[in-house]
Design brief:
CATH architecture of the largest domain: 3-Layer(aba) Sandwich
Low-confidence stretches: 1-22
Helix content: 10-25%
Largest sheet: 8 strands, mixed
Oligomer: single chain
Strand content: 15-25%
Number of helices: 15
Mean pLDDT: 93
Shape: globular
């Protein structure tokens, strides 16, 4: 997981947003009340939006805090959040946000523009050590960020904040919807004395009522929430330390509403074969691609013919079968749910003989020997074995290095791993924009010591094109920008620095008592479910 003068302003106010972004029509059958239970195997480290970056806490934080921007529930469509409206200057460098009046923090104080300035300054201050600080790199003054905040963030009046960028950035509104951009009250951060993650105070639909470390967290409804009518639930209980198989049994017994870690792989076929259970499983896409990285700086992967041969050697359909059909074969780096995805793009079809010919053309008719790194948790070693067998068919001997996740990440960042199967570490987008699938994992910025571009692929010409695409900030440039990103990823695919294998699907199993639009149970932004909009059918 995971960068962002008034007289000539181009007004992109609320009225200029897509129709879907203006409002959300709730389920007419929705009931208010009730409490639900979510389980997780692992405990939660923090609920501080500037710090939290884990599977478990991401959506928890989204329900505790708000940012200037948000998404229409169940979609990737941007809509205003704490900002009532916004304007973008003609040059794309200045964003002026008009804040909603009367929004209250959980401590009862009304939010102002000063809180926005403080929050953005806090997340970018090196002392905070936020893993998301880099997302704000386009804000003026980022290179000098510190305890005094960002020079590019200006309070115009109590309900107006102006943010000036150092470069045009079409992803900036998405950045303002990230958890890291959540608005927090300074007095609550100060009162927590360095432990704000355990004593969070936001403006969100829920607030923290209880936290028993290693056991459970309890969220209660924010009755003063600024969005009318939501949340429906009175509370959400998160039970931690629950093995996924145990969580599944408890769901089947009516004790749990959603197993946060999903359906255990060993039980997947059993669940889906039972019509009664399968009827309560919602299937959707996610912003994910699983891939093999090919280190272009390490022979023989410095030859594009070799990289293409590896792409053509992999039987992706067989790998999807290994994970019980919980994905679709990938043809390109971008997943199908991502803007910029090219429908009908063939990529590198499975072709053993074609792969052998490419190796021969590269001067290696007898193949070669290499290492394939993989995280040592199921099903990844089994997938690696399938890849190993596929490569053996074209004469490539791949020695599997099955290691702990931290060791694989270290080898990838150091550039010592010639091949890595990304399973368990594969990219899930921080926000739904093609730029988020490029810079960190395929661009030059990520091809550094400790970076996430494990193929070490760096094409400066493509980087320049990407920067120009992200300078297209006007509303009438959206289509042209996406078209350029499609072309960029087409060129990336031709270079074959990755072998895209599959795009995971989401399978959310929920209790019969939960209601709401199916899209809320596979929400691309809220995982496992959108707590703010689902409801309990048995609420009294």
């Amino acid at each position: 997981m995971k960068t962002w003068l008034a007289s000539t302003a181009l007004a992109l106010t609320l009225s200029a947003l897509p129709a879907l972004a203006q409002d959300y029509t709730p389920d007419p059958n929705a009931k208010a009340g009730g409490t639900i239970t979510i389980t997780y195997k692992d405990d939660v480290a923090t609920l501080d939006p500037a710090i939290g970056y884990d599977w478990q806490n991401w959506s928890m934080i989204k329900s505790l805090f708000d940012g200037l921007m948000d998404y229409v529930p169940g979609t990737t469509t941007l809509r205003p959040g704490l900002a009532e409206s916004y304007e973008i200057s003609e040059d794309g460098l200045t964003y002026t946000f008009k804040l909603r009046a009367g929004v209250k923090f959980h401590n009862g104080r009304e939010m102002t523009a000063e809180d926005v300035k403080y929050s953005l300054g806090r997340v970018t201050d090196p002392a905070t050590q936020s893993p998301g600080a880099g997302f704000f790199g386009s804000i003026a003054g980022f290179d000098k960020a510190g305890p005094d905040g960002l020079s590019g963030v200006e309070v115009v009046d109590p309900l107006t904040v102006k943010i000036t960028l150092s470069r045009p950035d079409a992803t900036f509104l998405h950045v303002m919807a990230l958890n890291f951009a959540s608005v927090v009250p300074k007095e609550a951060v100060d009162a927590a004395s360095g432990d704000f993650g355990k004593m969070p105070v936001g403006t969100g639909a829920f607030k923290l009522a209880e936290w028993t470390l290693g056991q459970r967290l309890v969220f209660e409804k924010n009755v003063d929430y600024w969005r009318t009518g939501v949340p429906y639930l009175d509370g959400v209980v998160f039970e931690v330390g629950q093995e996924p198989v145990v969580a599944l049994l408890r769901l089947q017994n009516g004790e749990v509403d959603v197993p946060g870690d999903g359906i255990p792989p060993a039980k997947f076929q059993e669940v889906m074969a039972d019509p009664a259970q399968a009827a309560r499983v919602v299937v959707g896409g996610q912003l994910h691609t699983g891939y093999i990285t090919l280190n272009v700086t390490t022979p023989p992967f410095d030859k594009v013919e070799v990289r293409k041969a590896v792409n053509m050697a992999i039987n992706k359909d067989r790998i999807v079968q290994i994970i019980n059909g919980r994905a679709v074969p990938a043809t390109q780096p971008l997943p199908p749910s991502m803007p910029g995805y090219t429908e009908g793009y063939a990529g590198y079809a499975f072709d053993v003989e074609g792969a052998k010919k490419l190796l021969a053309d590269a001067g290696m008719p007898d193949g070669f020997e290499t290492d394939l790194y993989v995280m040592n948790t199921d099903p990844n070693p089994r997938i690696a074995q399938a890849i190993q067998q596929d490569l053996a068919a074209i004469g490539v001997k791949a020695n599997i290095q099955s290691l702990a996740q931290a060791n694989v990440i270290e080898a990838g960042g150091a550039g010592t791993a010639p091949m890595i199967w990304s399973g368990g570490m594969a990219w899930i987008a921080d926000f739904p924009d093609p730029a988020n699938f490029y810079y960190g994992i395929l661009g030059c910025a990520g091809a550094v010591e400790g970076g996430w571009n494990w193929s070490k692929y760096c094409n400066k010409a493509l980087d320049e094109r990407a920067a120009k695409a992200d300078a297209m900030v006007k509303d009438d440039q959206k289509d042209a920008r996406i078209a350029e990103w499609k072309a960029i990823f087409d060129d990336v695919t031709k270079e074959a620095a990755w072998a895209p294998i599959f795009n995971e699907k989401r399978f959310t199993y929920h209790s019969e008592r939960l209601g709401g639009d199916p899209a809320l149970f596979t929400d691309p932004i809220h995982i496992p479910v959108n707590y703010d909009y689902i409801y309990a059918k048995d609420a009294q």
